[in-house]
Write a structure and sequence with these properties.
alpha/beta; Rossmann fold; 2 domains; three-stranded antiparallel sheet; 10 helices; globular; binds adenosine-5-diphosphoribose
C-alpha cells in the first residue's frame, strides 16, 4: 500500500509525544494530530507548535484533541501515552500501569485508524508492543516498537566522543530488548565502514556497551523527574517518516519474530526494513554463538514477563 502526503497521530502529548510531533512538523508532514487525555495539554502544545511554523519554515496542519474521531485516516499512529520511569525504577516496573493505558489506546486506534501502522514508544517497550498487537488484532507487521534506533544512537554518541569523530560517520547496531538485556553488537558497529573492534581495545568497547545498556537510566537519574525524550521522540519520528514516505529505511526496531534468530511469538529488537506496510522485512544477521545467545537470553526474559505479568 502506498500512503499519501500523510497524517500522523501521536497519542500522548507529554515529553516524548510532543518532541516527536515537533520533529514531524519540521519534516513538513501534511497533518499531525496530538491526542492526550488532558485536552488542553494537547491543544496548547499543538497551537504553540503551529505558531513556530513561520519561524522554522514548516506549514503542515498540527492540532490537539482528546477525541479518537480526530485520528481518523491516520497513516501512522505513534503511541507515547503512559508513565515514564523515576530514579531507581526499571522499565519493567511500569508494566502494570502502562498495560491498562495501552489497552484503552489500542481500542481507540482499532476503531478509528484501522489501516494505520502503529509505532510504539511506551515502556516497557517490547512488552507494550506485544500487548498493543494483541489488543488491536492488527497484523504483526503493522505494529512496531521504537528502541533500537535510540539505543544505537546512544552507542554512536559514546563512540564518537571516545574516538573524537563525527557521529555522522558512526553506525552502531544494538539488538535485543529495550532494557538491561539489550545486545550491543561491536562487530556490526563501524566508523566509516571500519568495525570498532579494529579501532578500540576490548575494555573500552565493553565500557561503551555497558553505558549504552544503562543509557536511559543515566538520564533518569539526572532528570530526577521523568525520563529521556529528545532522542526517543526523534527516533519515533524517523520511523513514522520512513513508513509514511515508504522510504524503506533499514533500522533496528522491535518487531514480531516468527522463527528468525530461532525465536518466535515475541517482539524484540532486530534490524528491519520500514516502509508503507510497516515491517516489510526482518534482516537476519549472521551472529556468532555468544551474540545469538545474548539475543535469545534477552527474548527469554521478555517471554517470561509476558506470561507471568501480562498473562500471555
Ligand atoms: N490516553 C492518552 N494519553 C494518555 C493516557 C491515555 N489513556 N494516559 C496517559 N496519557 C498521557 C499523559 O497525560 C501524558 O501527557 O501520556 C503522556 C505521557 O507524557 P509524560 O508523562 O511526559 O511521559 P513521557 O516522558 O512522554 O514518556 C511517555 O514513553 O519513553 C516512554 O518510558 C516512557 O512510557 C513512557 C512514555
Amino acid at each position: 500500500m502506498t500512503r499519501g502526503a500523510g497524517k500522523v497521530a501521536v497519542i500522548g502529548a507529554g515529553n516524548v509525544g510532543a518532541t516527536c510531533a515537533f520533529v514531524l512538523a519540521q519534516k513538513n508532514i501534511g497533518e499531525v494530530v496530538l491526542l492526550d487525555i488532558y485536552e488542553g495539554f494537547a491543544k496548547g502544545k499543538a497551537l504553540d507548535m503551529s505558531q513556530g511554523g513561520q519561524i522554522l519554515n514548516y506549514d503542515g496542519k498540527i492540532s490537539g484533541t482528546k477525541d479518537y474521531e480526530d485520528i481518523e485516516g491516520a497513516d501512522v499512529v505513534v503511541v507515547t501515552s503512559g508513565f515514564p520511569r523515576k530514579p531507581g525504577m526499571t522499565r519493567e516496573d511500569l508494566v502494570g500501569k502502562n498495560a491498562d493505558i495501552i489497552s484503552q489506546v489500542g481500542q481507540g486506534i482499532r476503531e478509528h485508524a484501522p489501516d494505520s501502522v502503529i509505532v510504539m514508544v511506551t515502556n516497557p517497550l517490547d512488552l507494550m508492543t506485544y500487548h498493543m498487537q494483541k489488543v488491536t488484532g492488527f497484523p504483526p507487521e503493522r505494529v512496531v516498537g521504537q528502541a533500537g534506533i535510540l539505543d544505537s544512537a546512544r552507542m554512536t554518541h559514546f563512540i564518537s566522543q571516545t574516538l573524537g569523530v563525527s557521529n555522522e560517520d558512526v553506525q552502531a547496531m544494538v539488538l535485543g530488548g529495550h532494557g538491561d538485556t539489550m545486545v550491543p553488537l561491536p562487530r556490526y558497529t563501524t566508523v566509516a565502514g571500519v568495525p570498532i573492534t579494529q579501532l578500540m581495545d576490548e575494555k573500552t568497547i565493553q565500557a561503551i556497551c555497558e553505558r549504552t545498556a544503562g543509557g536511559g537510566g543515566e538520564i533518569v537519574k539526572m532528570l530526577e523527574k521523568g525520563s529521556a525524550f529528545y532522542a526517543p521522540g526523534s527516533a519515533a519520528a524517523i520511523m513514522a517518516e520512513s513508513i509514511l514516505k515508504d522510504r524503506k529505511r533499514s533500522l533496528p526496531c522491535s518487531a514480531y519474530l516468527t522463527g528468525q534468530y530461532g525465536l518466535e511469538d515475541i517482539y524484540i529488537g532486530v534490524p528491519v526494513i520500514l516502509g508503507s506496510n510497516g515491517v516489510e522485512c526482518i534482516i537476519e544477521l549472521d551472529l556468532e554463538d555468544p551474540e545469538l545467545e545474548s539475543l535469545q537470553g534477552s527474548a527469554a526474559f521478555y517471554k517470561e514477563q509476558l506470561s507471568s505479568i501480562l498473562g500471555y
